[in-house]
Design goal:
four-stranded mixed beta sheet; 40% strand; 10 strands; six-stranded antiparallel barrel; 7% helix
Length: 189
């Protein structure tokens, strides 16, 4: 795209990639959220998985699932944000292994492979730069249930999940779909 823009002498050819919310003035997304959801800035409790209070947060706006830095609680092992309960204004934290997702549900599938190819172990990818993950898949109409054999952290609804198998030419694209549900009792996704 940039090469085409250069050839056409467009002034956006060297513009940096957008990495944030583009419609927010000056990139100040917190002011927009403060206007529409002021309760997001209200202090609340940080709890562990058992419900024990470990500290206080300065507003759920400052946290995201999987976050490690900025929790401001010292612990023997690092703590990660596992759940953000906006109704109770609490943040639940726990160990990294509590972020692991093994089951995904997908919709809006685009299947390119044959039915038989899905009867065996396949590989899935949930991030363009991520690793191929061994998985079992069950397809029913335009939905799929994915079981990731070793699990993976940092998977959320809204992400794409792409299916691959290996053949004599290398990785073969079998299709993909959109994650609409993940299964982990510790996470809010």
């Amino acid at each position: 795209t940039r090469n085409i823009a250069n050839k056409l002498s467009l002034n956006v050819a060297d513009k940096p990639d957008s990495q944030d919310i583009c419609f927010v003035p000056n990139g100040d997304y917190s002011s927009v959220i403060k206007k529409f959801r002021p309760e997001s800035f209200k202090a609340g409790d940080i709890l562990d998985l058992s419900g024990k209070k470990l500290g206080e947060h300065e507003g759920i706006i400052n946290y995201t699932i999987g976050q490690r830095k900025g929790i401001k609680i010292s612990n023997v092992d690092p703590l990660y944000v596992l759940n953000i309960d906006a109704d109770k204004n609490t943040i639940i934290v726990g160990p990294k292994e509590s972020l692991i997702i093994q089951n995904l549900e997908l919709r809006d599938l685009n299947i390119l492979g044959s039915e038989e190819e899905f009867d065996q172990l396949i590989s899935v990818k949930v991030r363009s730069t991520g690793s191929l993950l061994k998985a079992k898949i069950k397809i029913k109409e335009n939905l799929a249930n994915i079981e990731i054999i070793d699990g993976e952290a940092g998977i959320s609804p809204g992400q794409a999940c792409v299916f691959y198998s290996k053949d004599e030419h290398g990785d073969k694209l079998l299709g993909g779909g959109w994650i609409y549900k993940t299964a982990n009792k510790n996470l809010s996704t």
